[in-house]
Amino acid sequence: MNGIELPLQSMKNVSIPAERPALLARSLTLMKPITWFAPMWAFLCGAIASGAAFWEFPEIGRLLLGIVMAGPILCGVSQTLNDYFDREIDAINEPNRLIPAGLVSTQQVMLTIAVLLVLGLGIALYLGLGVLIIASVGLLLAVAYSAPPLRAKRNGWVGNTVVAISYEGLAWLAGHVAFGSLTEASVVVAILYSFGAHGIMSINDYKSIDGDRRGGIRTIPAMYGPKRAAWLIVATMNLAQIGVIAAFLFWGQWIAAVVIVGVMLVQLPLQRRFIQQPVAYYLKFSAIGVTFYVWGMIFAAVGLRAV
After folding, report:
1. Which residues lie below 8 Å from residue 244, measured CB to CB, with a gap of 6+?
2. Where are the domains of the chain?
3. If we measure between CA atoms, which residue out of 170, 153, 142 comes closest to residue 40?
4. Least CB-packed of 1, 111, 209, 298 within 10 Å?
């Protein structure tokens, strides 16, 4: 042992500063790529439901542009806003995040938001006035969700409604409007899947129940406890899917209804296990159980082409 080595017991108390990520990596981390899937998928479903054919480059290009707008850009700006306004609660729940850890400057946060806003609204305008209006409403809801004085996320019922409408309903409608005139059937299905998404939004809240309670964030798991929240989540998802099935039966689209019934039945064993062990199983349920739910969305979108 040489003179500069520390005793083992002393080394246990030595904290190693977190490494500062590269500039672009910091912005991407704030934008949370893992959250982009829901609005991207919903935009795709809306585009399919419009009845548009995607066989030529202009249509494929518009579709890809819209998906990027819905996910990386508009969802990215909402996530960045949320991280900024959550910096105090994150200091309790997840102190290693970029903002509470001091690994990203306020200037970069603001610049990231500004760049994403310009890109998102610019693409929305290119895709059409209807898309621009829907995107603008979504951005207002993102601010209402995260920022004071409204800060809708403080209540799980209100906050989940805001997110579900933005990530599922508005994204679906934007995808439809980008390629054709809205139909009543598409609006009904978008509303129903948004209702189901209200429950799905609560799954991620299992990771921070204690911190949310201390910070006054009344998520569904924080308010009702893990077990009762799991029942509410599953009931909301299933009621939405039953509503979609009933709608297709009313429209005489039996094949679409039967397919969505099959998708729902596959989810039941996964839902049962989630209800039994919500804290231990919520991550797996989020990865597997929700996947079948969103596959039902794409089948519904295809079915709407015949309505």
Report:
1. 189, 192, 193, 260, 296, 300
2. 22-182, 183-307
3. 170
4. 1
This prediction has a pTM of 0.90
Count of other CB atoms within 10 angstroms of residue 62: 19
CA distance 271 to 262: 15
Q: What is the CATH number of domain 183-307?
A: 1.20.120
- Kindly give, in sequence order, each residue whose CB lies less than 8 Å from that of residue 235, ignoring residues fewer than 6 positions away: 199
Burial of 88: CB neighbours in 10 Å, binned 0-12, 13-18, 19+: exposed
CATH of domain 22-182: 1.10.357.140
239 C-beta neighbours (distance < 10 Å), count: 14
Burial class, 91, CB count within 10 angstroms (exposed 0-12 / middle 13-18 / buried 19+): middle
Residues of the chain predicted below pLDDT 50: 1-17
DSSP letter (8 states) at residue 41:
H
> From the CB of residue 51, how many other CB atoms can be counted at a distance below 10 Å?
16
Task: Give which of 23, 37, 31, 85 is closest to 287, Cα–Cα.
Answer: 37
Identity of residue 254: W
Asked if residues 139 and 77 have their Cβ atoms less than 8 Å apart, the reply is yes
Composition of the chain by helix, strand, coil, percent to 5 = 80, 0, 20
The tally of CA atoms less than 13 A away on the side-chain side of residue 149 is 0
Residue 107 class from Cβ within 10 Å (0-12 exposed, 13-18 middle, 19+ buried)?
Answer: exposed
Among 157, 144, 124, CA closest to 82? 144
Residue-level pLDDT at 42: 98
pLDDT digits (tens, 9 = 90+) for 269-292: 999 999 999 999 999 999 999 999
